[in-house]
Amino acid sequence: MVDKKNYKVLYDIESPKDIRSFNTKQLKQLCSEIRDYMVDVVSEVGGHFGGGLGTVELTVALHKVFNTPEDSIVWDTGHQAYPHKIITGRRDKLNTIRQFKGLSGFLKRSESEYDDFGAGHATTSISAAVGIAEGAKQLGIDRNVVAVIGDGAMTGGMAYEAMNNAGVLQSNVIVVLNDNQMSIAPNVWQISNYFTEIIAHPEYNKFKGAIWDLTGKLDNFGDRLRKVAGRLNTGIKSVVTPGMLFEALGFRYFGPVNGHNIKKLVELFEHIKPLKGPILVHAYTEKGKGYKPAEDNAPKFHGLGPFDKITGETPKKENAAPSYTEIFGKALLKIAKANSKVVGITAAMPDGTGLKYLQGEFPERFYDVGIAEEHGVTFAAGLATKGIIPVVSIYSTFLQRAFDQISHDVSLQNLHVVFALDRAGLVGADGPTHHGVFDLTFLRMLPNMVIMAPKDEAELRNMLYTATEYKDGPIALRYPRGSALGVKVKDEFDLIPIGKGETLREGKDVAILAVGNMVRFASEAAEKLASQGIFVEVINMRFIKPLDTNLLDKIATKFEKIITIEENSIVGGFGSGVLEYFADKDYKNSILRLGLPDAYVEHGTQDQLYHMLKIDAEGIVENVRELLDEK
Ligand SMILES: Cc1ncc(C[n+]2csc(CCOP(=O)(O)OP(=O)(O)O)c2C)c(N)n1
Asked: Ligand 1 pocket: which of 49, 59, 77 to mutate (most atoms <8 Å of CB)?
């Protein structure tokens, strides 16, 4: 519970303008109160946490020094922007974060004029900031533009594409590298080893004072040092200027700086504010800073549900069935034990994808490529050319990044790569940036691709096994976020015949062709409708591609009215595939496609969203009755 009495300055802040006159003591007080407020609120409602605790001083210093919102701050990914939300007029709504109709968990342009650029996916900030800076240049406006990017996000290639471009253009962008050495899991950023080596180097420590001077007061000395450094060989030079890598890309490097020293940060930002051209500020921070349980367990506190404020303990879920992720991860391990060709690839999500089980037992057959989905896919394609069976486990929403790699490197060459798309469908609180609702569409258009969606965890295991055994080309399975259904799972695996659906329930009035998670809702709806005298045939199609055309032919003759249902955009997805087949065959049945609309769906719980979109059991009942004109 938030008790206003505990706060001396926080409630005086309605916008960043209110902190511009603060002295260091007041700024420190504000930082401490922002942390307390985050603990108070997030412990009650859940949300992203550790990243925000690590950016408190950076946030306050940036909003103090820069004239936001005229100046721009672009936060990468956006999960670390809770302090930013708190001081940009959203303090009192923070307790609605990630809830239906509440604040977004990420950045959102429509939410605040201080959110210069929407985010949710990683590694977009520098590109967007360069665009904003060049936009200002085009319009003849003088504007400072800052991108704040984590070391995790720096494992994504787009950061380097953007820096290269900024260097070529000599754009007025300031990139703040928020380096806490963590992604969600420990980061796999090779460059951080380079920094660690330099910073531990005795020569660097000899020059350290001068390096810091480069960032501020003794600038002339800094320039002289640079000239000296310029004459040294590369190895020694990098010791004197640890940011040589960034300098090679055309950036001036400042740092490393302690990202929790508000006084130093303010001085530094004041100093660089008038400078022109691309600048990189390297700040070391600690994820979870100031809240012991989060400092001690950064992965857990990256994002979580409500927790005990004093102990950091999260309540145990009672009797919940295991998640699809866990079922997948354990099944993959079992398959890998029997088939030494199978390896797993994750893009920075070993826990989130369940690959941690494989990692634990076969670390040499587990690859964390960083937040580099594009590379991960082409890397898998390379492995597949040598007969390795890569299982690429990426959330549906993040796989969007790698579309060309799936097409050009995998499908076109018809390589046996297994795509395991976790979090497919509506993900709930993370909202539109994270809903995985386009994969059926973007995979279905690709030649050679097989696409499956299990109705429950038993089928998920069998589909994964089938995918690893299938040798003919790329094959994908997609499954939802959250707990599985709790059905009985037998230990050994069964092969599922490719392109074969199954009839789960016979009916006579209407047929529902369902895939994945929607099969259970269709079955529940059929049960309800039966008690109302309406008899629905329920078919688990299993395969979005290839479609079971024998089954479709039979359905076309047996039923006049057919419903397709999928947890994907109805544009170009499973229902579209059925429609195309019916059109090609000149079948005249009437087909109603249920699924997600051609619009970005907001955040809320999964159940709220299913209900809103009328694709839960109740919604299907309504749809069927309307279709049969019996309402
Ligand atoms: C393209 C993409 N892949 C994966 C993710 C999932 N994800 C969210 S935050 C995060 C780690 C980010 O690490 P970093 O940038 O260092 O920020 P920190 O949390 O450490 O502050 C990951 C992998 C994502 N948001 N976007």
From this structure: 77
Q: Give exposure, 378-389, as e/b (b: 16+ Cβ within 10 Å).
A: bbbbebbeeebb
* Ligand 1 near 107 CB (within 6 A): no
How far, in Å, from the CA of 625 to the mean position of ligand 1? 44
Asked if the model's pLDDT at residue 602 lies above 90, the reply is yes
- % of the chain at pLDDT higher than 90: 89
pLDDT for residue 128: 98
Residue 198 in contact with residue 242, Cβ under 8 Å? Answer: yes
Atom of ligand 1 nearest to the CA of 302: 19
Q: What is the pLDDT of residues 299-331, one digit of tens each?
A: 999 999 999 999 999 998 777 899 999 999 999
Q: Does domain 324-478 have CATH number 3.40.50.720?
A: no
Candidates 80, 151, 183: which one to mutate for ligand 1, based on the most atoms within 8 Å of Cβ?
Answer: 183
Return the domain boundaries, the chain: 65-80+96-293, 324-478, 502-627
Considering the entire predicted model, what is its pTM?
A: 0.94
Among 372, 312, 301, 415, which Cα is nearest to 53's?
Answer: 301
CATH number of 502-627: 3.40.50.920
C-alpha torsion 304→310→311→315, nearest 10: -50
Instruction: Calculate how far, in angstroms, residue 429's C-alpha sits from the geometric centre of ligand 1.
Output: 16
What pLDDT digit, counting tens, does each position of 412-463 carry?
999 999 999 999 999 999 999 999 999 999 999 999 999 999 999 999 999 9
Using a 6 Å cutoff on CB, does residue 183 contact ligand 1? yes
Distances (CA, A) of 281 to 53, 81, 148, 268: 19, 18, 9, 9
Active site residues: 287, 373, 401
> Is the CB of residue 51 below 6 angstroms from any atom belonging to ligand 1?
yes
Specify the CATH class of 65-80+96-293 in words. alpha beta
